[in-house]
Amino acid sequence: MIVIKGAGDLASGVAVRLAHCGYPIVMTDLLHPTSIRRTVCFSEAILKGTFTVEDVTAEYASDTSAIPAIHEREHIAVLSDPEANCINSLHPEVVVDAILAKRNIGTAIEDAPIVIALGPGFTAGVDCHAVIETMRGHDLGRVILAGSAEPNTGIPGNISGFTTERVLRAPIDGIFSELHHIGDIVEKGEPVAAVNGEIICATLSGVIRGLLPTGTPVHAGMKSGDIDPRPAQAHCYTVSDKARAIAGGVLEAILMLQRRISHV
User: Fold this and answer.
1) Domains, the chain, ranges and CATH?
2) Are residues 224 and 176 in contact, defined by beta-carbon separation less than 8 angstroms?
């Protein structure tokens, strides 16, 4: 069994690849998820009961007792368990920290025989067995068995020459409201969303790839949406290139570490 902490878009991309390989998976997230790319996030199962990304379906598990039946249906189980306390009772063979908090907020190398973490904030050999590089570029998806991933720059990855412009942020504290929806094509300057009536405009022309749902509490500066300058609406409903690369790294790390354990 594999427990994946987090059920956002990168975590879900990892889960899709591992599910294709036949691994039984449990994912954990907040009771009220704040995933931006909701159309490809298994965290939506917490809100909707079931959710499908590409050809893989996840089901909400009210507690750990519901997991075996979900796995019998060859579905992913998703728990509202932000602290991932389920690890203590499930005793998984693998734990993957895919929260992407840019720091370690509670993962230990003792959590499972194999512990893998995505991105900066972890040191392989100290608080996990392997780190997967999440920085876009030549090393994206690389397995790190000693040391850490590239530090967080605070700048989103470059897509078609755009970085920070791709991200929509809440202007003030308040309640988020959608004026457009994921998959809509918008022009730069067009109203996309609002917080307590204060309008958030598109920072560039493209397709809305991610957007918080109406009613989400936000704070000033909080990431609330994502615009892709490539006008490919289909990309909104499939696992991203970045997530697939990272997922490949996770699978590689699992197989490498399992082989090491079997030779001990």
Assistant:
1) 2-152+241-262 (3.40.50), 164-229 (2.40.50.100)
2) yes
- Nearest to 145, CA basis, from 101, 196, 109, 176: 109
Buried b (16+ CB within 10 A) or exposed e, 56-89: bbbbbbeebeebeebbeeebbbbbbbbebebbee
pLDDT, tens digit (0-9, with 9 covering 90-100), for 98-128: 999 999 999 999 999 999 999 999 999 999 9
Cβ(10)–Cβ(246) under 8 Å?
Answer: yes
Edge-to-edge strand order for the sheet containing 174-178? 198-201, 191-195, 174-178, 217-218
> Alpha helix (H) ranges present in 30-98?
44-48, 67-72, 86-90
Tens of pLDDT along 201-219?
999 999 999 999 999 999 9
Backbone angles phi, psi at 2, to 5 degrees: -120, 130
All residues at 6 or more sequence positions from 40 whose CB lies less than 8 Å from its CB, including other chains: 9, 12, 13, 53, 236, 237, 238, 239, 240, 243
Evaluate whether 141 touches 132 at the Cβ level (below 8 Å).
yes
What's the full length of the chain, in residues?
264
Contact residues for 1 (Cβ-Cβ < 8 A; gap 6+)? 23, 24, 25, 26, 90, 92, 93, 94
